[in-house]
Amino acid sequence: MNAPSLADLAAMLRRSRGFRHKADIGEVLAHLGPAAAESPDLGDDCAVLADGGGFLLFAIEGLVEDFVEALPWFAGYSAVVVNVSDIYAMGGRPLAVVDALWSAGAPTAGEVLSGIHAACAKYGVPMVGGHSNAQASRANLAVAILGRARRLLTSFDARPGDALLMAIDLRGAFQEPYPFWNASTSAPAERLRGDLEILPALSEAGLCRATKDISMAGAVGTTLMLAECSGVGATIDVDAIPRPPGVALERWLTTFPSYGFVLSLRPEVVAEVGARFASREIVWAVVGEVDDSRRLVLRRGPEEALLWDLSETGFIRPREAVHA
């Protein structure tokens, strides 16, 4: 079977569930009026409050209800993992989580909570409270997290001329039939924590300009969000994206890995940053470069295809913010 063209890949990504969920953010925020559209902080992985010599980080993640109903234990586990990744993507370290859980009965709630507790134990993050309702018609879950950073990484500081580096833990497998690459549940806790510690260490050493953790929008969609927040464009070589052997590119580009980050770096620090990931057996690669076009372009050899023109249409920002 022939690989899809870049134009077909771009169209597939724009139609994907992850892209549609992210595009909903702008439509929802538009209802908050001009203040939301013009907010300079819109689009980061965490909310930030200055706190003495550092920063408090706040994030929250909700999980789609079909996932919670089908895999309640893994949904609970994943809700902690994605929050922990948000904190580390901002150069921070997690302190505690709380949850809000709705279920049609206590057994489902118990499975979800068991997954939450398993992830909290593995990542060393206590669950300190929450809310539950076992009389709901369907299962729904949200988990919030508090963290702290000494030096902040944001989504707003990518600059034209930067190298785009992706680092993904490929030591896992798909949580079938969902687009979740699970490199966490069977991994040792000490290794998981050490792998994540790379991010705040990079921040505190001043080696990274901007970072986002790879989310439901996949590796390319996450890069698009980073570009939008920073007011830049980028070109991505899709064949350079770290990918497990035997996994089709079109599936991988819509995958949510349990450990995956996009970094915008000065070219002169790429080797040092890459060595830090390699020392932990995290696969990394330079996948493209940042430019001033405000367009995200996919590339494969001489072939190119436009994925998104941010100067014309916002992705996660309200439309009013695009031409501000």
SSE topology sketch:
Layout: H1 6-15, H2 17-30, H3 34-37, E1 47-51, E2 54-63, H4 65-70, H5 72-89, E3 92-104, H6 106-123, E4 127-133, E5 135-149, E6 163-168, E7 173-174, E8 180-182, H7 189-204, E9 210-213, H8 218-230, E10 233-237, H9 249-252, E11 256-257, E12 260-265, H10 270-278, E13 283-291, E14 295-300, E15 303-309, H11 319-322
Parallel strand pairs: 3-4, 8-11, 10-14
Antiparallel strand pairs: 1-2, 2-5, 3-5, 6-12, 6-13, 7-8, 9-12, 10-13, 14-15
Describe what is shown at a glance.
The chain folds into 2 domains: 6-41 and 154-322, Phosphoribosyl-aminoimidazole Synthetase, Chain A, domain 2, CATH 3.90.650.10; 47-149, PurM-like, N-terminal domain (60s Ribosomal Protein L30, Chain: A, 2-Layer Sandwich).
Tell me what you see in this structure.
There is one protein chain. This protein is an alpha+beta fold and 324 residues long. The protein has two domains: 205 residues, PurM-like C-terminal domain (Phosphoribosyl-aminoimidazole Synthetase, Chain A, domain 2, Alpha-Beta Complex), CATH 3.90.650.10; 103 residues, 2-Layer Sandwich (60s Ribosomal Protein L30, Chain: A), CATH 3.30.1330.10. Helix content is 36%, strand content 31%. The chain is built from eleven helices and 15 strands. The strands form three sheets. It has a seven-stranded mixed sheet with strand order 9-12-6-13-10-14-15, with helices on both faces. Strand 7 and strand 8 form a beta hairpin. The chain is globular. 46% of the residues are buried.
